[in-house]
């Protein structure tokens, strides 16, 4: 059974606004498609978030596998809910922070659903959605967006942007399983390795499944494609200080604030970080589909 459902969410522009100005974020409905498997509930559930192009066939392939395995899946549509089709060339139309608000509001909505077990809700996503799935494990965000204490039971990001470096190092103890390719030049895996090195000593229960020699979207069937206008990560990180203020060193000696839209736009105009490849890989795709299913079943049903 698949049902289109609506719930209340909000649109904070940046993580800064979640941490310091959430009360002033515009509120509005968001929708998603809730897949309920056959059998008797309540079911474990996976909240799934799309990438910068919106929902694509390879995401749907994973969803079908998980539902067939007996998991409920809630596919959030963060873009269409805001009348946006994609953000490949403009990451300010729908932001990571907005999608993070959607994810936690979905978590809290599902907690009251009679067919869902609130203690067994995981989060996954691809690319931009994976960034949400990764940083949803950061406790300062969770404490604002889910003050009841409800948390995700597991996090499974596919090729996330792992470039945000919070000063406050408090992380969920729930397992985090990243899947990433070594020649990804949209969200390079180097940021993931650095993220793991930083966060593990502070309690992050995190692993990465590395796929050698594969691009971004390796779990798709896409031919090699160059996205000339895609905004990418290069070598820069974004810092979040203990007060929730964000900044980035755009050039040596040039640190710019990154809290507000005009600040982020100014940084992009200097950095001009665009252009990347996407390509599926048959072997990595098959492995990732099975690996992801087994991870979710282990964390949510055993």
What's the SSE blueprint?
Layout: E1 2-10, H1 15-21, E2 27-35, E3 43-49, H2 57-68, E4 72-77, H3 96-110, E5 116-126, H4 128-135, H5 139-145, E6 155-158, E7 164-166, E8 175-181, H6 189-199, E9 205-211, E10 225-231, E11 238-240, E12 246-251, E13 254-257, H7 261-271, E14 274-278, H8 282-301
Parallel strand pairs: 3-4, 3-5, 5-6, 6-8, 7-11, 8-9
Antiparallel strand pairs: 1-2, 2-4, 10-14, 11-12, 12-13
Helix pairs in contact: 2-8, 3-4
Structure notes:
By secondary structure, this protein is α/β, with parallel strands linked by helices. The protein has a single domain, classed as 3-Layer(aba) Sandwich (Rossmann fold), CATH 3.40.50.1820. The chain has 8 helices and 14 strands. The strands form 3 sheets. Strands 1-2-4-3-5-6-8-9 form an 8-stranded mixed sheet, with helices on both faces. A 4-stranded mixed sheet has the order 7-11-12-13, with helices on one face. Helix 2 crosses helix 8 and helix 3 crosses helix 4. The model has no long low-confidence stretch (mean pLDDT 97).
What descriptive keywords fit this protein?
302 residues; alpha/beta; Rossmann fold; eight-stranded mixed β-sheet; four-stranded mixed β-sheet; globular
How would you concisely characterize the structure shown here?
Helix content is 30%, strand content 29%.
């Amino acid at each position: 059974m698949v049902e289109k459902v609506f719930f209340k969410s909000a649109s904070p522009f940046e993580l800064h606004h979640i941490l310091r100005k959430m009360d002033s974020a515009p509120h509005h409905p968001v929708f998603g498609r809730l897949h309920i498997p056959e059998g008797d509930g309540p079911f474990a559930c996976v909240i799934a978030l799309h990438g910068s192009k919106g929902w694509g066939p390879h995401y749907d392939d994973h969803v079908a596998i998980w539902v067939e395995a007996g998991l409920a899946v809630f596919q959030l549509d963060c873009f269409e809910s805001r009348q946006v089709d994609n953000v490949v060339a403009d990451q300010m139309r729908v932001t990571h922070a907005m999608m993070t608000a959607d994810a936690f509001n979905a978590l809290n909505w599902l907690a009251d659903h009679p067919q869902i077990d609130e203690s067994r809700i995981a989060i996954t996503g691809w690319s931009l959605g994976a960034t949400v799935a990764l940083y949803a494990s950061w406790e300062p965000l969770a404490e604002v967006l889910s003050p009841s204490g409800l948390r995700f039971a597991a996090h499974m990001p596919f090729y996330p942007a792992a470039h945000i470096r919070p000063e406050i190092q408090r992380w969920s103890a729930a397992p985090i399983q990243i899947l990433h390719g070594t020649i990804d030049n949209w969200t390079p895996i180097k940021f993931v390795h650095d993220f793991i090195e930083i966060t593990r000593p502070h309690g992050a229960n995190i692993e990465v499944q590395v796929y050698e020699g594969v691009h971004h979207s390796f779990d798709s069937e896409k031919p090699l494609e160059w996205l000339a206008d895609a905004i990418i990560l290069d070598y820069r990180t974004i810092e979040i200080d203990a007060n929730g203020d964000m900044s980035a060193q755009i050039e040596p000696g040039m640190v710019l604030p990154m809290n507000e839209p005009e600040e982020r736009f100014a940084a992009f105009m200097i950095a001009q970080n665009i252009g990347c490849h996407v390509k599926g890989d048959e072997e990595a795709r098959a492995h990732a589909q099975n690996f992801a299913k087994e991870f979710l079943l282990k964390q949510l049903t055993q």
